[in-house]
């Protein structure tokens, strides 16, 4: 092993050890006799590159899987990517457009060839970036939702559910993307607040010279109106009951119907009903048996069924029809209006159109029941638990799932149409032909036409924990039996319905068990002022650049310091700086210890014996705390506990207690104990900071090739000596008191001091106290020394005699000025800590920092008051 560098440079360490881990297959897992620990990665889109949300999610996964390895489990983290049908197709369409090629100019096969080329070139980028983070995935198992096993699994599931009567084809209202010309799921629609206009249109009442006024934001849809609706409880519109009205410009008579759905307070209380172009109107149309007139084409132009403005774009029609209505005297008034408008997530400039469409649906009611019970009964535990309420609400109101998309990239619907319009559903064209021949023996393969649509991307990812172990195609195989159910899932709450719930449904439907035991929900990554990080705002740092600046371990630690489970993360680059500084602290502590000369003949001082006994207790206490925090998935707090143990107790106190005098050797027993403690600390820190801990652990002693800290044993807690911890807390307070006197009086550390104890208090740790404070004498005295600087520890007064040359009045003035400052500072800190929103909403590390400020201020105030009292 080469000599350890003077300073820590992550670039010299990270690539080296990641290559070492890969070379020795240290991330690989195969079933054996050990307890399995399994995590499957939420598959990032092949279109994606690493962002801060990925950083947080995958850091947490890596911490959990590394810790599991060190606990002796057979730990497996399975990586993979999602084909992201809509997003990928949009990327390829845009790329082809730059080459002057339209999708419509290509055959399906030609277009898919372009998509595969793009996917093969770009699809693995994000996984390579995850390696920079230190992700310890078994890369030999890397999966893709469109690879052979996953593709065949999806098709088999479709056929199975169809044969069970759970999949059907029907016309329903969907979110329609007119640019991509496909249905969208709810999660693929982004709602934005927009400044619109509210048009008050005049519908003539048949047989009267009066008009019913309707308020709408969409006058372009009047060609699809098939009724007007009023609330039967609305007194102002009772005169319209049983009447008919004429649609303006269209001149079609439509009935006035009554339904309590209508909001009496909106507009005039009269509602135009357009069943083909509004989900609520569609519901009314179904309830009241109204005709649905679809006036739009696939690309949101007016269709011949509209009868007017045929071929014009919907927004051009909105302008034109408003002018025409005005000219005809059929607009009562126009008001400014704020409303939410849905946009396609993948085509950000495209307004989504509610549209009746023939789609494939999965009945969700019955198959969702086991999944609801699993979460309610904590078979699947949510962390934080608050998300159970969100889950229950959705699952208790679950609707049939629209699983088809009008795309070419994806798993093609395995339905095959016969010439007479009927269809068969089969896994392969050959099986489809067999089924078709049962209907008509004269048919040939050329007579069958496969459905053009693809399946919703979520219809492949809902099988992810099963299909990764080939549990659909080969049920009960060795791997699915060993690794399933998986242990933990780490994901965001924004996809609780679209992915988490559906995976639980699939687990019970196809394996008969839950897919995972715990779901850990991360929060949204926000900037330091609370805005969601996004490319548009320019407030999202590039994770790769962050890792170049602060090192992967520094960034991992920075992310975790501000990441309580389920709460939004207020990310600040200063936390990465804190992480990098902590790496430097670990590095320098290691070099300090390794730089000590040892004298085997040297007796072990009593102060070192005490220090070793004390730190053993602190270590065991911290290990118990960290274990308890991990059991509750309080990972951020576990990191803070490990951080404090190393920075405060080990580096700031223990090393000061045991380090030899300048250019003097250390005894063997103390060095061995210290080296053992360092080894233990590196193992505790490894899941959080894998690179630096591997580097230092390898330097700690000679290691065989292929050895790694990731397979060393995670320290386990035993009972700890609370008495020595309590005793040493008092010693630490005394030391801090003496150090405060030195700082206040500008007395150098090398100058010995005397310490007086007022009263009969004694300690068995005088040798250690003298070493830490550089004391020449410790004495018990009956009275205060008026010239001494005094401080209290509990009820015991200590004072440090100082030279008579001190200007008493000047010293008092300085002390009182300092007291005023710290009292003001304390008030400001306590005001912040008394704010419940701050305490409950800010990251744990930030709140803890404020509490430390409060404690430090109280300590300083107490010492200052004691000093003033002694001099007065």
UniProtKB/TrEMBL annotation:
Domain Methionyl/Valyl/Leucyl/Isoleucyl-tRNA synthetase anticodon-binding residue range list: 613-755
Binding residues for ATP: 535
Top-rank taxon, per record: Bacteria
All residue ranges annotated as the Valyl-tRNA synthetase tRNA-binding arm domain in the record: 809-871
Keywords tagged on the record: Aminoacyl-tRNA synthetase, ATP-binding, Coiled coil, Cytoplasm, Ligase, Nucleotide-binding, Protein biosynthesis
Gene Ontology MF terms: aminoacyl-tRNA deacylase activity; ATP binding; valine-tRNA ligase activity
Motif residue range(s): 'HIGH' region: 44-54
The reaction(s) this protein catalyses: tRNA(Val) + L-valine + ATP = L-valyl-tRNA(Val) + AMP + diphosphate
EC number(s) per entry: 6.1.1.9
InterPro entries membership: aa-tRNA-synth_I_CS, aa-tRNA-synth_Ia, Anticodon_Ia_Val, M/V/L/I-tRNA-synth_anticd-bd, Rossmann-like_a/b/a_fold, tRNA-bd_arm, tRNAsynth_Ia_anticodon-bd, Val-tRNA_synth_C_sf
GO cellular component, one term: cytosol
Limits of the Aminoacyl-tRNA synthetase class Ia domain: 16-570
GO biological process: valyl-tRNA aminoacylation
Location relative to the cell: Cytoplasm
Pfam families reported in the protein's UniProt record: Anticodon_1 (PF08264), tRNA-synt_1 (PF00133), Val_tRNA-synt_C (PF10458)
Quaternary structure and interacting proteins, as annotated: Monomer.
Family per similarity comment: Belongs to the class-I aminoacyl-tRNA synthetase family. ValS type 1 subfamily.
Function statement: Catalyzes the attachment of valine to tRNA(Val). As ValRS can inadvertently accommodate and process structurally similar amino acids such as threonine, to avoid such errors, it has a 'posttransfer' editing activity that hydrolyzes mischarged Thr-tRNA(Val) in a tRNA-dependent manner.
PANTHER family attached to this UniProt entry: VALINE--TRNA LIGASE (PTHR11946:SF109), VALYL-TRNA SYNTHETASES (PTHR11946)
Entry domain remark: ValRS has two distinct active sites: one for aminoacylation and one for editing. The misactivated threonine is translocated from the active site to the editing site. The C-terminal coiled-coil domain is crucial for aminoacylation activity.
Protein's recorded name: Valine--tRNA ligase
Native source organism of the sequence: Candidatus Amulumruptor caecigallinarius
């Amino acid at each position: 092993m080469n000599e350890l560098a003077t300073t820590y440079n992550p670039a010299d360490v990270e690539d080296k050890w990641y290559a070492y881990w890969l070379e020795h297959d240290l991330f690989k897992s195969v079933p054996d006799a050990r307890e399995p620990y399994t995590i499957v990665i939420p598959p990032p889109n092949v279109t994606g590159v690493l962002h801060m949300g990925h950083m947080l999610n995958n850091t947490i996964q890596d911490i959990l899987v590394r810790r599991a390895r060190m606990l002796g489990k057979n730990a497996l983290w399975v990586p993979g990517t999602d084909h992201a049908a809509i997003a990928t197709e949009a990327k390829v369409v845009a790329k082809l457009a730059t080459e002057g090629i339209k999708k419509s100019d290509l055959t399906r096969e030609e277009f898919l060839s372009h998509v595969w080329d793009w996917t093969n070139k770009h699809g693995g980028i994000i996984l390579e970036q995850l390696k920079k983070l230190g992700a310890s995935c078994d890369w030999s198992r890397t999966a893709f939702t469109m690879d052979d096993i996953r593709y065949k699994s999806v098709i088999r599931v479709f056929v199975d559910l169809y044969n069970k009567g759970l999949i059907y084809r029907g016309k329903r209202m969907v979110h329609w993307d007119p640019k991509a010309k496909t249905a969208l799921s709810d999660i693929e629609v982004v709602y934005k607040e927009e400044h619109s206009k509210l048009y008050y249109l005049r519908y003539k009442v048949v047989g009267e010279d009066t008009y019913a006024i309707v308020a709408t934001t969409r006058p372009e849809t009047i060609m699809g109106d098939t009724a007007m609706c009023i609330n039967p409880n609305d007194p102002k519109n009772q005169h319209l009951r049983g009447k008919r009205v004429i649609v303006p410009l269209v001149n079609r008579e439509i009935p006035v119907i009554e339904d309590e759905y209508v909001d009496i307070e909106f507009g005039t209380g009269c509602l135009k009903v357009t069943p083909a172009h509004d989900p609520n109107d569609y519901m009314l149309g179904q309830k009241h048996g109204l005709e649905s007139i679809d006036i739009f084409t696939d690309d949101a132009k007016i269709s011949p069924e509209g009868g007017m403005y045929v071929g014009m774009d919907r927004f051009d029609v909105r302008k034109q029809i408003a002018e025409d209505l005005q000219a005809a005297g059929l607009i009562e008034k126009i008001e400014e209006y704020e409303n939410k408008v849905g946009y396609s997530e993948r085509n950000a400039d495209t307004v989504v159109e509610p549209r009746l469409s023939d789609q494939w649906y999965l009945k969700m009611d019955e198959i969702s029941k086991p999944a609801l019970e699993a979460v309610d009964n904590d078979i699947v535990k949510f962390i934080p638990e608050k998300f159970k309420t969100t889950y229950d609400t959705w699952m208790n109101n679950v609707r049939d799932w629209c699983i088809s998309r009008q795309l070419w990239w994806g798993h093609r619907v395995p339905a095959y149409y016969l010439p007479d319009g009927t269809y068969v559903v089969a896994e392969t064209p050959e099986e489809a032909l067999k089924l078709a021949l049962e209907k008509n023996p004269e048919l040939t393969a050329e007579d069958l036409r496969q459905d053009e649509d693809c399946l919703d991307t979520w219809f492949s990812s809902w099988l992810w924990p099963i299909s990764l172990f080939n549990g659909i195609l080969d049920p009960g195989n060795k791997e699915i039996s060993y690794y399933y159910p998986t242990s933990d899932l780490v994901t965001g709450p924004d996809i609780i319905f679209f992915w988490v719930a559906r995976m639980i449904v699939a687990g019970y439907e196809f394996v008969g068990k839950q897919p995972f035991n715990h779901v850990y929900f991360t929060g949204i990554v926000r900037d330091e002022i609370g805005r969601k990080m996004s490319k548009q705002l320019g407030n999202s740092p590039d994770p790769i650049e962050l890792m170049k600046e602060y090192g992967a371990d520094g960034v991992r630690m920075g992310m975790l310091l501000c990441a309580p489970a389920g709460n939004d993360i207020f990310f600040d680059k200063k936390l990465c700086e804190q992480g990098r500084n902590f790496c430097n602290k670990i590095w320098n502590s290691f070099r300090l210890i390794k730089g000590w000369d040892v004298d085997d003949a040297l007796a072990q001082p009593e102060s070192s014996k005490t220090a070793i006994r004390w730190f053993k207790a602190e270590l065991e206490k911290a290990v118990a705390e960290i274990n308890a925090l991990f059991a509750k998935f309080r990972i951020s707090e576990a990191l803070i506990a490990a951080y404090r143990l190393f920075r405060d107790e080990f580096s700031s106190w223990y090393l000061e207690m045991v380090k030899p005098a300048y250019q003097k050797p250390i005894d063997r027993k103390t060095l061995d104990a210290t080296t053992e403690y360092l080894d233990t600390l590196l193992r505790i820190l490894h899941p959080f900071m894998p690179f630096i801990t591997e580097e230092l652990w390898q330097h700690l002693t000679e290691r065989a090739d292929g050895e790694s800290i990731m397979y060393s044993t995670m320290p386990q807690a035993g009972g700890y000596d609370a008495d020595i911890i309590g005793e040493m807390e008092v010693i630490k307070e005394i030391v801090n008191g003496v150090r405060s006197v030195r700082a206040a009086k500008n007395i150098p550390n090398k100058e010995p001091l005397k310490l007086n104890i007022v009263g009969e208090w004694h300690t068995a740790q005088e040798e250690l106290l003298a070493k830490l404070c550089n004391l020449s004498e410790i004495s018990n005295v009956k009275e205060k020394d008026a010239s001494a600087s005094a401080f209290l520890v509990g009820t015991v007064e200590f004072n440090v005699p100082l030279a008579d040359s001190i200007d008493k009045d000047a010293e008092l003035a300085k002390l009182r000025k300092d007291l005023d400052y710290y009292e003001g500072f304390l008030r400001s800190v306590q005001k912040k800590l008394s704010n419940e929103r701050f305490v409950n909403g800010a990251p744990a590390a930030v709140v803890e920092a404020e509490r430390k400020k409060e404690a430090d201020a109280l300590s300083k105030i107490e010492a200052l008051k004691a000093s003033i009292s002694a001099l007065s």
